[in-house]
Amino acid sequence: MSLEVQDLTIEIDGRRVVDGVSFAVADGARVGLIGESGSGKSLTALAILGLLPDGAVAAGSVRWNGRELIGLPDRELAQLRGDEIGIVFQEPRTALNPIRTVGRQIAESIRIHEKASKRDAATRAVAEARRVALPDPERIVGRYPHQLSGGQRQRVAIAMALACRPRLLIADEPTTALDVTIQAEILELLRSLVEDDGMSLVFITHDLAVLSQIATHGVVLDDGRVVEAAPVAELLTAPASPVTRGLLRDATATLWRPGGVA
After folding, report:
1. Among 76, 96, 141, 205, which one is least packed by beta carbons within 10 Å?
2. Considering only the top CATH level, what class is 1-84+166-262?
């Protein structure tokens, strides 16, 4: 397994908010963490890369290719982020630096992790912008985040996360802030890029319909605990947990197409 999470617990100011979460992601697998707001899914994802908020303490085990990540020094975790493990957040407006061009932000990871020259990194930034289907990539890399649409900003965030070809992508509700049409485009883009690169994927969402479009296996969380884990097709057709049945009732009908399970 490329990623193994075992008995993960997270406490914030002495209150346990994630309690004994375990799951594994094999090489090339696409696994979703799904649950309502407050279920602990995003905190679980942040714990993988040591990005928990101040006051949060993680225990248990998170192993990446056999290497324990919990307790790893920040310097070593920083080397993993963007190089071996990429992450895309829900709201690109807050993830992107408003005073730097998007091209410079895409190039930054390439310069840091691949020791590329400024010129080479700038050339690569254009190629990465083209890869995520940004329009007129030669021009768009010179723009600032506020000059782009929400969907374009999310494509920039994806380009940044994947520029160094990580082996694992963590996507934390990357389509929630987008309208349904753009949401579907971003999901298709993510799925195609993950498949093309043979990456593993951890996809976080509250929407079972969205999960059905991109993941093959789902881990359902409620109140910080795993309540069900099964292939997504099984979660859609024979949910075992009342929590999963509730998520199924709330699934976005406009995205859930019969036979459309990834």
Report:
1. 76
2. alpha beta
